[in-house]
Design a protein that fits this description.
By secondary structure, the chain is α/β, with parallel strands linked by helices. It has 16 helices and eight strands. It folds into two domains: 197 residues, Rossmann fold (3-Layer(aba) Sandwich), CATH 3.40.50.720; 142 residues, N-(1-d-carboxylethyl)-l-norvaline Dehydrogenase, domain 2, CATH 1.10.1040. 51% of the residues lie in helices and 10% in strands. Helix 9 crosses helix 14 and helix 14 packs across helix 15.
Length: 355
């Protein structure tokens, strides 16, 4: 499919896509779009990183050994990256989301500097600490010029390095306006990257957020030397926790059985590439969370999200025992074996309706 056909299908009408955040996942998505012939601009917070990527055509810091298209424009300039953009893709950590998006909101203005509707797609699988808000909720507040029903999330079993290498994978893009989601679906779809559309934004985001918490628990189990049965138990009971919270917050239960729920959870709990799982492994081996995070180059959203997910559960009266034990290990230095014992000693109940 040639670039003009892509533009016609997606409603881009020749307007660019801006990817905000040059970490591994933001860089991967930018490369997918540029390889399709879509005018794509990648924004990096640090000028030296932008310059290094522009010069070498490789993001050696976050996505080494992946050649980036010559047509991909990389900069640290807000206006250059986003002016006239049809789609704004947010790929920055949750703690920086509001601040970074605020800077771009000024450039986008009312409907975008280039005119026409603008969609915003969040790749960030985290929550805002103080407000307990999802990233699409933050985006709706920060960008009044973008219609709220065109603000959504792209999420699924999407380990960046594998997708950047062209390995087959799938994802979900969810927006309140299903027509806008289908339009965005055309933008992101690639030969080895299959995109599904939906309108359950709450479920899509919560699936991506809670799986990071459960992945830390799965990593702890691996680090303690337990096997597949333990991991499968944590995955399925963790999914039950996520679905309970999601339903109370307005999500569709079936979303958690799909790519944004079970799919993402399996990949993150099982893969050695998963940063959150790796944290759990190291916790089980006796390392402190301060040491682990201090040595990490990229953000592991689960470390920050666990506290917020726990607070959401308390706010909505939802019992999430695995989440509470992960929080105890992260913030109260509870020994991993004691956390496991707490989970196993809970009162017996039924599977389908029990907590």
């Amino acid at each position: 499919m040639v670039a003009s056909e892509v533009a016609k299908l997606s409603g881009l009408a020749g307007r660019p896509v801006a990817v905000i955040g040059a970490g591994s996942w933001g860089t991967t998505i930018a490369a997918i779009l540029a390889n399709k012939g879509i005018e794509t601009r990648l924004w990096a917070r640090r000028p030296e990183l932008a310059e290094a990527i522009e010069e070498s055509r490789e993001n050696r810091e976050y996505l080494p050994s992946i050649h980036l298209p010559a047509t991909l424009d990389v900069s640290s300039d807000v206006e250059r990256a986003s002016a006239g953009a049809a789609v704004l893709v947010m790929a920055v950590p949750s703690h920086a989301f509001r601040e970074v998006l605020s800077a771009f909101s000024e450039v986008l203005g009312d409907g975008g500097a280039g005119g026409g509707a603008v969609s915003l797609v969040s790749l960030t699988k985290g929550l805002e600490r103080d407000s307990l808000k999802r990233m699409t909720e933050v985006a709706a507040e920060v960008t009044p010029g973008i219609a709220s029903d065109r603000i959504g999330a792209l999420t699924g079993p999407n380990l960046a390095a594998e997708i950047a290498q062209g390995q087959p994978a799938a994802t979900l893009i969810a927006m309140p306006d299903i027509a806008a989601a289908e339009e965005a679906q055309e933008v992101f779809m690639a030969p080895s990257f299959r995109v599904y559309s939906g309108d359950d934004v709450v479920g899509a985001e919560l699936g991506g957020i809670t799986k990071n918490v459960i992945a830390i628990a799965a990593g702890v189990a691996d680090g303690l030397g337990f096997g597949d049965n333990t991991r499968a138990t944590l995955i399925t009971r963790g999914l039950a926790e996520a679905a309970r919270l999601g339903v109370v917050m307005g999500a569709e239960p079936l979303t958690f059985a799909g790519l944004a729920g079970m799919g993402d959870l399996i990949a993150t709990c099982a893969s050695p590439r998963s940063r959150n799982r790796s944290i759990g492994v190291r916790l089980a081996r006796g390392e402190s969370i301060e040491k682990i995070t201090g040595e990490m180059k990229m953000v592991a959203e689960g470390v920050k999200s666990t506290e917020v997910v726990r607070d959401l559960a308390i706010k909505h009266g939802v019992d999430m025992p695995i989440t509470h034990e992960v929080a105890a290990m992260l913030y109260e230095k509870k020994p991993p074996r004691s956390a496991l014992a707490s989970l196993l000693s809970r009162p017996i109940t039924s599977e389908l309706y029990g907590e």
